[in-house]
């Protein structure tokens, strides 16, 4: 029974600005049936979308699983007040609810010694006000790249609706072992983002062709009983010279299938 290929997803970061009907066709054609929808003014999905626009987006994505709205809310940043940050987060969560998404992705974005306390307070404030069925997923990223960094925050929030995304490159690049990341995130792990790259270069490489220890990560997740989605974050928005997402999806699907069939 496939343990990876049955739950493959990708982020629309890999196809910036693509109309949602075309995104859906790409997903269904490549066999990747889950989506992370990037929420930004230059995308088809954003918080300014009208009620009619949200209904149209939902119709366009029929047949796919919308996993999260990938927001750019920075939950630990001191650049916005607590009230503004929580309001931004809840606006993105409302968009997620309207699009049938399970969660809204947020970044840490810490910029001073108060980052952890700020993030904890804001997550505690936002969680009880979330729309029904929507969670907050905090990603291993920027100021908090390791599993241990997220653990310091999530262990203090005490709300089952606040969970973690394991972006596999950041903890590895931050020097954290796969076993330590898995252990730190285990109580909260909701979602896994896959990517590959060379040691000192952030430019995305096709899965299995770089230095990120993907085999070890994936086998650790399997051993730990992870049953969520595996999402390719193909960062073509930030690296326009890399191959198109369609090619990365085909190559990634084929490489992941070798793990599905391995003993």
From TrEMBL:
UniProt keywords, alphabetically: Isomerase
Pfam families referenced in this protein's UniProt entry, alphabetically: AP_endonuc_2
Identification of the protein by name: Sugar phosphate isomerase/epimerase
Biological source species: Dactylosporangium fulvum
Domain Xylose isomerase-like TIM barrel per the UniProt entry, residue ranges: 26-258
Molecular function, one GO term: isomerase activity
UniProt keyword annotation of Iron-sulfur present: no
């Amino acid at each position: 029974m496939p343990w990876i290929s049955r739950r493959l997803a990708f982020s629309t970061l890999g196809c910036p600005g693509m109309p949602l009907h075309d995104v859906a066709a790409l997903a269904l054609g490549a066999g990747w049936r889950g989506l992370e929808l990037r929420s930004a003014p230059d995308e088809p999905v954003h918080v300014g979308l009208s009620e009619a626009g949200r209904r149209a987006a939902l119709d366009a994505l029929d047949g796919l699983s919308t996993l999260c709205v990938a927001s750019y809310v920075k939950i630990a940043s001191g650049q916005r007040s607590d009230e503004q940050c929580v309001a931004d987060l809840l606006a993105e969560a409302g968009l997620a609810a309207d699009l049938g998404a399970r969660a809204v992705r947020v970044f840490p974005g810490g910029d001073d010694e108060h980052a952890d306390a700020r993030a904890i307070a804001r997550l505690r404030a936002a969680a009880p006000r979330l729309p029904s069925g929507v969670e907050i997923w905090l990603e291993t990223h920027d100021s908090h790249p390791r599993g241990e960094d997220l653990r310091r925050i999530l262990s203090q929030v005490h709300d089952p609706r606040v969970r973690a995304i394991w972006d596999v490159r950041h903890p590895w690049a931050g020097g954290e072992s796969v076993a330590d990341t898995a252990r730190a995130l285990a109580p909260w792990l909701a979602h896994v983002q896959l990517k590959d790259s060379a040691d000192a270069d952030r430019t995305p490489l096709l899965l299995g062709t770089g230095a990120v220890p993907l085999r070890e990560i994936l086998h650790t997740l399997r051993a730990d009983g992870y049953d969520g989605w595996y999402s390719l974050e193909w960062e073509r928005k930030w690296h326009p010279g890399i191959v198109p997402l369609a090619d990365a999806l085909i190559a990634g699907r084929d490489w992941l299938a070798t793990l599905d069939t391995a003993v």
